[in-house]
Amino acid sequence: MQVLVRDNNVDQALRVLKKKLQREGVFREMKARRAYEKPSERRGREKAEAVRRSRKAARKLAIREGLIAGPPRKPRPQARPARPAASAPAS
Q1: 42 within a domain of the structure (yes/no)
Q2: What's the CA gap between 83 and 79, in Å, rounded?
Q3: Using one digit for the tens of pLDDT, what is the confidence trace for 20-74?
Q4: Is 17 in contact with 3 (CB distance < 8 Å)?
């Protein structure tokens, strides 16, 4: 994994690195490896994760096909009207 540091901006590079590690699941795996997990617990957890993934995929498909209503959409902010040009001061 590689992160480029632009303009000596290390803070931004760290944020990008953390986001990449989060997406890859490195933090979740580190937390899971802190303590031993029994094989039966592992199977149960993995099965629950698979069920969750399949339900999420089915829900997304149903929303896409219009079978169920999706989450309410946030209203888009209205475009502000342009400010009138400043006229010369009246004297």
Answers
A1: yes
A2: 12
A3: 999 999 999 999 899 999 999 999 999 999 999 999 999 999 999 999 998 888 8
A4: yes
Note the pTM of the prediction, 2 decimals.
0.55
Helix ranges (DSSP H) in 25-38: 26-32
Q: Are residues 1 and 29 in the same domain?
A: yes
What the block records as the tokens of 26 is: 């490195």
Instruction: Output the pLDDT for position 58.
Output: 97
- Same structural domain, 25 and 51: no
Whether residue 3 contacts residue 13, with contact meaning beta carbons closer than 8 Å, is answered with yes
User: Is 44 found in the same domain as 17?
Assistant: no
Q: What is the dihedral of CA 38, 39, 44, 45, to 10 degrees?
A: 70
| Domain region containing 64 | 38-68
Tokens of residue 70, six digits: 């999706």
| Of residues 28, 60, 57, 58, the one with CA closest to residue 45 | 28
